[in-house]
Design brief:
The chain is built from 13 helices and 13 strands. Strands 3, 4, 5, 6, 7, 10, 11, 12 and 13 form a nine-stranded mixed sheet that branches. A two-stranded antiparallel ribbon has the order 1-2. A two-stranded antiparallel sheet has the order 8-9.
Length: about 325
């Protein structure tokens, strides 16, 4: 009976076009992937890949075998996870992609209670401020917002993504405090360049009465990471525009202050997203409910809102 590890090593190697790519997805070494595929070939009595120093290509037999497997591998993995679910013990490796700030400040603190409740789950988490392809990159769950999701993906909203303007007291000292976004004209802007299209992001802000107005700061400093933008703002280098959870602790400490209070840009919502498979593994279901319950109980949707004069305290998260 062929092992699931051998089959998955073959499928992932075919998808990635290399043993090293499959190894990254499966958290193994390329040598282990190569051994698994070699064992599969030995057991089947056929060569599945043509190997060279630079390329890994399917043989005709390999192409037929991959087509025959289809989506059965995922079904087998789900079935194995659900065996544990019937024992009320979600199990397996939980691979998640999540953004740096929200991930470390609001998701990571949930881990001790989650693992205490589900000790058979192991975590493999990747922190990055980008959208991921769940299937291609081998993630069970993604967390993030501000992008379109592919068909076949379930998205559960966690909180709004409201962008607010902030600056250090040292930068604002001696300047007339702006009242609305048009007053930001001429101020130094710490702005973000999109990694997907290379463009600088410009925001149109709104107030509680529904008025809208574009932001007009100078593009003095351009960066691609929210954490770096926060640090630059704390250093007094200008005004920056970031999501509430990125800056809330620094507003609470006084390192930053909110500029043009009551004005914010709506960038959509922060979602927890996962594949819409008919049978989601128990580990996924358990984690989704754990996070949703926390966000609801802690009122994080309200605390992430930028629609009043300032974010609510986050000390109890």
């Amino acid at each position: 009976m062929e092992t699931l590890a051998n089959l998955e090593s073959f499928v992932r190697s075919a998808e990635e076009g290399s043993f090293s790519g499959a190894a990254r997805r499966m958290a193994l070494t390329p040598a282990a992937i190569s051994r698994n595929v070699a064992m599969l070939e030995q057991n089947l009595g056929v060569r599945l890949f043509q190997r060279s120093t630079r390329n890994l290509t399917l043989t005709e037999a390999g192409e037929r075998f991959l087509a025959d497997i289809g989506d059965k591998l995922e079904g087998l993995q789900t079935a194995i996870s659900d065996v544990a679910a019937h024992r009320h013990e979600p199990a397996g490796i939980l691979r998640i992609s999540l953004p740096n700030t929200i991930g470390t400040d609001h998701i990571l603190p949930l881990l001790p209670a989650f693992l205490a409740r589900y000790p058979a789950i192991k975590v493999d988490w990747h922190f990055a401020n980008r959208q991921v392809d769940l299937i291609k990159e081998g993630f069970d769950i993604g967390i993030g917002g501000g992008f379109a999701l592919a068909p076949g993906i379930i998205a559960r909203p966690l909180a709004p993504t409201h962008i607010i303007a902030v600056a250090a007291p040292s930068y604002l000292a001696g300047r007339i405090r702006p009242v609305e976004p048009s007053d930001l004209a001429g101020m130094d802007g710490i702005v973000m360049r999109s990694e997907s299209n290379g463009r600088v992001r410009h925001w149109t802000m709104r107030d509680n009465n529904g008025r809208e107005m574009p932001t007009l700061t100078r593009e003095t400093i351009v960066m691609n990471d929210p954490l770096a933008m926060v640090r630059a703002a704390i250093l007094g280098l200008g005004v920056t525009f970031l999501a509430v959870p990125d800056v809330a602790p620094h507003l609470a400490s006084g390192a930053l202050v909110r500029v043009v209070p009551c004005w914010y840009a709506d960038a959509g919502a922060i979602h927890l997203y996962y594949s819409s498979r008919t049978l989601s593994p128990a580990k996924i279901r358990a984690f989704v409910e754990h996070v949703l319950d926390h966000f609801k109980g802690a009122g994080l949707a309200d605390r992430f809102s930028g629609g009043d004069s300032g974010p609510r305290p986050f000390a109890s998260s």
